[in-house]
Structures are given as structure tokens and as C-alpha cells.
Protein: MotA/TolQ/ExbB proton channel family protein
Organism: Pontimicrobium aquaticum
Amino acid sequence: MLYTAMLKTAQEGTELLTDEESVEKTLSIIELIKSGGTAGQVIILLLFVLLLVASYIYFERLFAIKSASKVDTNFMNQIKDHVSNGKIDSAQVLCAQINSPVSRLISKGISRIGKPLEDINTAIENAGRLEVYGLERNVSVLATISGAAPMIGFLGTVVGMILAIFELANAGGTIQMDVLASGLYTAMTTTVAGLIVGIVSYICYNHLVARTNKVIHQMEANSVEFLDLLNEPI
């Protein structure tokens, strides 16, 4: 009986010890950031701001590109009917009602009807460059964030290691993990945060570029169709 009681007590003590160890190993993200010191918190805050900026640019551009890509499939057929029948004003009104990059290019071409075909093509190309510039507005900022965020995270790593070495040098040569913890937390948390922001921004940038290219191809296809319409024999 005594042996059984001792064994039971030992098992309970082991369970309590295991529970304590599991509690000690549990660390929330907020506690991890707080443990990184002032330098780590400043860098994490900067990365968080960059993440907010990247998110705003991504969703703002995504909705703008979606709106620009919406073109009525019957739009060019209506333009063809108006131009063929000599209803230039009606074609311009239709372009104004649609109000999309494609309609603005066609409107620019319609306004040049009567001039040489080369001049019309040049006018459409110039208008197309302006439309592409508008679609790509602020997208380059995403590319900058995707490259700068990991570098800022690595800067935090270097700062954290410097702090760890400084604390170690002031410890009189004795290695104490609690003394090194702040610097190591700064090194690790900023690296992870920088990589997360950089990866998210890079994915968002490439997605916007792909969506923009689809709109550009759509603009080019409709422009070529319009020029072919003007080049048809009467």
C-alpha cells in the first residue's frame, strides 16, 4: 500500500511537472513581440504599416482592374454599326456611356476619323499608354514593399544579434539564456515578420500584373478590330 501511494504521488508530481513545462513552453505572438525589446517592436510596427499599405493598394487596384475589364461583348458590334452608317456622334455617345479603357481608346479613334489611318493608330497608342499607366498606378509600390520588407526584417535580425552579443559581453563571460533572450527574440521575430510581409506583397504584385496584362490584351484586341473596321472598303 505504501509503495502504491508513493508511486501514485510520483506520477502526480510528474504530471504536474509536465503541465508546468507545457505552460512554460507556450508563448503567444503578442508576448513574443513584447519580449523582442524596443528595437524589435519598432521594426515589427514598421512592417505592420507596410502590410497595411500593401493590402490597401492590392484591393484598391484589384477592384479598379475588375471594373476596367468589364466590356459588353456587343460593344464593338454596336460601334461597327454606328460607324458604318456614318453615325459618329452616336458612336461617341455609346463610348461615353460605357466609360472603360476600351471605350476611351475607341472614342479617341472615332474622334480622328477622316484622318490618315496611321494618325488614328498613333492616337490610339498614345491613349493606350495613358490607360496602362492608370491601371498600373501604385502597383510598383507593392514590388518595393515585397523587396524591402525582408531586408527590414534582416535588419532586425542584425540588431537583435548585436544586442545579444552586447549583453553577453556585459555578462562577464557567463552565458545566461535569459540575458540573451531579448536579443534573440528581436532577431527571430523581425525576420519572420519581414518574410511574411514580403511574400504576401510579392504574391499580390504578381496577381495584379497578371490581371493588368489581361486588360491590356483586351484593349489591344479591340483597337485592332476598330482599325480593321476603318480599313474595310466602303
Remarks:
- Residues 100 and 221 are 14 Å apart (CA to CA).
- The two ends are 112 Å apart (CA to CA).
